[in-house]
């Protein structure tokens, strides 16, 4: 049996998932990364993307828009501001997210970050429904 | 001496009141349970957030180049007090206790020569503060339409607070809310959110940071403020229901006592009337 890590996905309002996973694929700010058992302790920011968790009972995917992940040798905790299971995501929901991001970007002073968030969401829109 | 009819009406009216307070008590008991669950569910996120922020803040320190939200803008002149209260009354001393604490703090600050600004969340606190501190109001967040406090509500408050801070309209931001301890005890609490303070020991587990420690800190600080406000709102929600529940419990019991008292008086006066009539009949018959 493969070694597992304790995976937790929490949003500000509640704990969304908590189970043992063999592999967690995280959309990090600096690029995608996969965390497995024995990973060096890392804290990474998230960009809008798909969080894929390969657990002992199959694979689960979530769409996250931001937040951070705390990785240690035995656990992975993802603190996401908004997380939606991929199979519950509809194009309309994603469009609403894109609209929100555009709105936020319009008033954001940090142009680079704002544009990147919108671009990331557009990319997500393109890949999520193929 | 009130007439028998008056007494009867009075008893009927108190009985109605008792029905209402009893119903309100049961409603808030149900709401309290939900509010407590919400507060419970939000705890893991807040705890992790605080843990990470504590580690980050300890690593970066408050020296030169630290984010303003953490280190402050170097001044301590304008204090923004965020007073969180409920939208509805009939919850005992819930709102008064928050307002009292806020007033105390505001007076203290004014005595020190500081400028006080107030942002109110929830209309009951606003009403109570308006007379003395109305001139210091800089805004109000209305929660009347909010059925269930969500993270978005906290973000809305956080946005206002941070806008004021960034526009140099406030140097220090403190939130006021009631911490829920039990149904009969809610503790008025004040907490400074900007510059951010993190209590708790920094467990300096050596993390790698991606992108960099500073970048993550800058990214997380606004979220952490929103999270703190969210926690406060949830605590406040649970406290409000707890306070209302015990207030309504008291009211129900008082109404019960009143009913017993008035019923005794009613029965006595009825008996007195009967006795009087009998005496009249008997003495009338004897006179013949």
In words, what does this structure look like?
The complex is a heterodimer of chains A (130) and B (288). Chain A is globular, with a radius of gyration of 15 Å. In chain A, a hairpin with a 2-residue loop joins strand 2 and strand 3. Chain A has helices spanning 91-107, 111-128, and strands at 5-10, 15-28, 31-36, 42-45, 49-55, 58-64, 67-71, 75-80, 83-85. In chain A, strands 1, 2, 3, 4, 5, 6, 7, 8 and 9 form a nine-stranded mixed β-sheet that branches. Chain A contains two helices and nine strands, in the order βββββββββαα. The N and C termini of chain A lie far apart (33 Å). Chain A has two domains: 5-86, F0F1 ATP synthase delta/epsilon subunit, N-terminal (ATP Synthase, domain 1, Sandwich), CATH 2.60.15.10; 90-128. By secondary structure, chain A is α+β, with helices and mostly antiparallel strands. By secondary structure, chain B is α/β, with parallel strands linked by helices. Chain B has one domain (22-247): Pyruvate Kinase, Chain: A, domain 1 (3-Layer(aba) Sandwich). Chain B has six helices and six strands. A five-stranded mixed β-sheet of chain B has the order 3-2-1-4-5, with helices on both faces. In chain B, helix 3 (94-111) links the parallel strand 1 and strand 2 (115-121). In chain B, helix 1 packs antiparallel against helix 6, helix 3 (94-111) packs parallel to helix 4 and helix 5 packs across helix 6. The longest helix of chain B has 75 residues, at 213-287. The radius of gyration of chain B is 28 Å and the shape is elongated. Chain B starts with a helix and ends with a helix. The mean pLDDT of chain B is 88. Classes of the chains: A alpha+beta (130), B alpha/beta (288).
Properties at a glance:
heterodimer; A: 130 residues; alpha+beta; ATP Synthase, domain 1; 9-stranded mixed sheet; 2 helices; 9 strands; globular; B: 288 residues; 14% strand
Task: Write a compact overview of the structure shown.
The complex is a heterodimer of chains A (130) and B (288). By secondary structure, chain A is α+β, with helices and mostly antiparallel strands. Chain A has helices spanning 91-107, 111-128; strands at residues 5-10, 15-28, 31-36, 42-45, 49-55, 58-64, 67-71, 75-80, 83-85.
């Amino acid at each position: 049996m493969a070694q597992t890590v304790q995976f937790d996905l929490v949003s500000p309002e509640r704990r969304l998932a908590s189970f043992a996973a063999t592999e967690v694929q995280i959309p990090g700010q600096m690029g995608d990364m996969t965390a497995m058992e024995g990973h060096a302790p890392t804290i990474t920011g998230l960009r809008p993307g798909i969080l894929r968790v390969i657990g002992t009972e199959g694979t689960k995917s979530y769409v996250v828009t931001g937040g951070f992940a705390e990785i240690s040798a035995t656990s992975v905790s993802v603190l996401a501001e908004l997380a939606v299971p991929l199979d519950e995501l509809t194009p309309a929901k994603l469009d609403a997210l894109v609209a929100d991001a555009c709105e936020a970007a319009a008033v954001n002073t940090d142009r680079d970050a704002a544009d990147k968030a919108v671009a990331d969401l557009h990319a997500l829109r393109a890949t999520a429904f193929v | 001496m009130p007439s028998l009819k008056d007494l009867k009406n009075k008893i009927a009216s108190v009985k109605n009141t008792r029905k209402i307070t009893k119903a309100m008590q049961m409603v808030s008991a149900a709401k309290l349970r939900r509010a407590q669950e919400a507060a419970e569910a939000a705890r893991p996120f807040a705890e992790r957030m605080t843990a990470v922020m504590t580690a980050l803040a300890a690593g970066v320190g408050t020296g030169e180049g630290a984010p303003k939200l953490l280190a402050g803008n170097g001044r301590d002149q304008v204090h923004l007090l965020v007073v969180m209260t409920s939208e509805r009354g009939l919850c005992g001393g819930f709102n008064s206790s928050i307002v009292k604490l806020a007033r105390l703090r505001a007076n203290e600050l004014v005595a020190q020569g500081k400028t006080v600004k107030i942002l109110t969340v929830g209309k009951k606190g606003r009403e109570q503060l308006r007379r003395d501190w109305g001139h210091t109001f800089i805004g109000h967040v209305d929660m009347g339409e909010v059925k269930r406090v969500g993270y978005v509500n906290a973000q809305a408050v956080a946005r206002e607070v941070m806008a004021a801070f960034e526009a140099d309209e406030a140097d220090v931001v403190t939130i006021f809310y009631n911490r829920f301890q039990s149904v009969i005890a809610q503790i008025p609490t004040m907490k400074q959110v900007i510059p951010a303070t993190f209590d708790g020991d920094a467990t300096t587990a050596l993390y790698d940071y991606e992108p960099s420690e500073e970048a993550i800190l800058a990214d997380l600080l606004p979220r952490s403020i929103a999270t703190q406000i969210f926690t406060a709102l949830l605590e406040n929600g649970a406290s409000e229901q707890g306070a209302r529940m015990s207030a309504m419990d008291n009211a129900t019991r008082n109404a019960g006592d009143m009913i017993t008292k008035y019923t005794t008086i009613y029965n006595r006066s009825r008996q007195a009337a009967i006795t009087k009539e009998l005496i009249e009949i008997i003495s009338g018959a004897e006179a013949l």
